[in-house]
Amino acid sequence: MKIKNFTLLFLCCNIFFSCLSLPAPSDLELINEKSWLSDFEVIDDKVLIKCRITIKNNTGNDVKYKINAISRDDVDLGLLRNEIIEGYKEDLVTDVFTISANETVEERIIFVGDFAGNYQKHDRLLPKTINIILLE
User: Fold this and answer.
1) Are the C-beta atoms of residues 49 and 77 closer than 8 Å to each other?
2) Rounded Cα gap, residues 49 and 127, in angstroms
3) Could you list the residue range(s) of the whole structural domain that residue 56 is in?
4) What CA–CA distance (Å, rounded) separates 11 from 49?
5) Is 122 within a domain?
6) For residues 63 and 48, what is the distance between their CA atoms, to the nearest angstrom?
7) Residue 33 falls within a domain, yes or no?
8) CATH of the domain at 84
9) Is residue 112 part of a domain?
């Protein structure tokens, strides 16, 4: 009887702690499966990396955010001078994005960085690290 109670208690605790360790969704979530790099070009010593980024707002509020990326591989290859590239809307001026409460949107984002001289991209993948910065 004690072994049966102990086993039941052990299973309940295990399930409880497993639930606690599940990651909570962040306020703004990048949906990788629905995001991609579409093209890149160099204009006036600037690299423009054109992407479609799908973002989900997990909050009950409209929010504003900025986005940037880290692309170390493109620095190593000689495409970018710096690994941090800033995200803009297609007008290349607006860098603040808005998303409504509980909405999922696909944004056309252009990451902009300084050209380092080598007009070559090592792959057609999104930057490995994309940061979504929630604004107050």
Assistant:
1) no
2) 9
3) 26-135
4) 50
5) yes
6) 26
7) yes
8) 2.60.40
9) yes
Our CA dihedral for 83, 89, 92, 93, rounded to 10 degrees, sits at -110
pLDDT tens across the length of the chain (136 residues) = 555 554 544 444 455 444 443 334 579 999 999 999 999 999 999 999 999 999 999 999 999 999 999 999 999 999 999 999 999 999 999 999 999 999 999 999 999 999 999 999 878 899 999 999 999 7
User: How crowded is residue 133: how many other Cβ atoms within 10 Å of its Cβ?
Assistant: 12
Asked if residue 31 lies in contact with residue 104, where contact means CB atoms within 8 angstroms, the answer is yes
pTM: 0.80
Q: Is residue 7 part of a domain?
A: no
89-97 long-range contacts (CB < 8 A, ≥24 apart) are: 92/48, 95/66, 96/64, 96/65, 96/66, 96/135, 97/64, 97/65, 97/66, 97/67
Nearest-10 Cα torsion for 67, 68, 69, 70: -150
- Return the structure tokens found at 109: 């984002």
Nearest partner of 59 among 35, 27, 85, 90, judged by Cα: 27
